[in-house]
Design brief:
Blueprint: H1 2-7, E1 9-14, H2 21-32, E2 35-38, H3 39-49, H4 52-62, H5 69-80, H6 83-88, E3 89-93, H7 99-111, E4 118-123, H8 126-136, H9 143-157, H10 159-166, E5 170-174, H11 179-194
Parallel strand pairs: 1-3, 1-4, 2-3, 4-5
Bound molecules: adenosine monophosphate.
Adenosine monophosphate (AMP) binds near residues 60 and 66.
């Protein structure tokens, strides 16, 4: 089994909300056989289940804010230690979103004896993601929440591009064009990284 885990992809996908990250992540995870972990999905499931985490997260999510780093880091640390990810690798979608989360991710992987394969930045201009988000009509996609999420992205998450770049892990992919075109670009980046 060591062979399987050593070739397993461990990747992060970064990009503005509305960049197509969620859709592309599902396809990438299927193609490369890794586990898709969306922290937004984890939180939405907690809200739907009415757990304590869900109760804490709901208001923050509705306002387009960010759930606290300690909570998020705990969720991801626990999930990454599961045997399915050890065996098949992971695609993290929506995490890390802050410098503190990026530091935590590095520590979590180091503790597991693992390293990241690649961090892909799915690049779509701000005006384009706004149009796409207004069209998808998700419950937390009010104009105010969209603006807040995009502002937080620029402020907290965009600096992570340099963080990953400094570690030689960053690959930027043009997110404009058809879903299939974008997917091919992403898959090519991952194949190249896997060697
Ligand atoms: P997403 O589906 O990734 O757009 O996430 C939906 C919402 O969940 C975000 O607007 C945040 O409120 C929250 N969320 C998801 N991932 C994180 C994270 N890594 N850190 C903080 N909040 C998060």
């Amino acid at each position: 089994m060591a062979e399987v885990s050593s070739s397993a992809v461990r990747m992060v996908i970064l990009g503005r909300q509305g960049s197509g990250k969620g859709t592309q992540s599902l396809r990438l995870a299927e193609t490369f056989g890794c586990v898709h972990v969306s922290t937004g999905d984890v939180l939405r499931a907690a809200v739907a289940a009415g757990t304590e985490l869900g109760r804490q997260a709901q208001e923050i999510m509705d306002a387009g804010g960010l759930v606290g780093d300690d909570v998020m880091n705990g969720i991801v640390a626990e999930r990454l230690a599961q045997p399915d990810i050890e065996a098949h690798g992971v695609l993290l979608d929506g995490f890390p979103r802050t410098a503190d989360q990026a530091d935590a991710l590095e520590r979590i992987l180091t503790d597991l004896g693992r390293t990241l394969t690649v961090a892909v930045n799915l690049d779509v201009p701000v005006e384009e993601v706004k149009t796409r988000m207004m069209a998808r009509g998700r419950e937390d996609d009010t104009p105010e929440a969209i603006d807040r999420r995009l502002a937080l992205y620029e402020e907290q998450t965009a600096p992570l591009l340099d963080w990953f770049g400094a570690r030689g892990l960053l690959a930027t992919v043009d997110g404009s064009g058809s879903e299939d075109e974008v997917f091919e670009r992403l898959a090519e980046v991952v194949r190249t990284r896997l060697g």
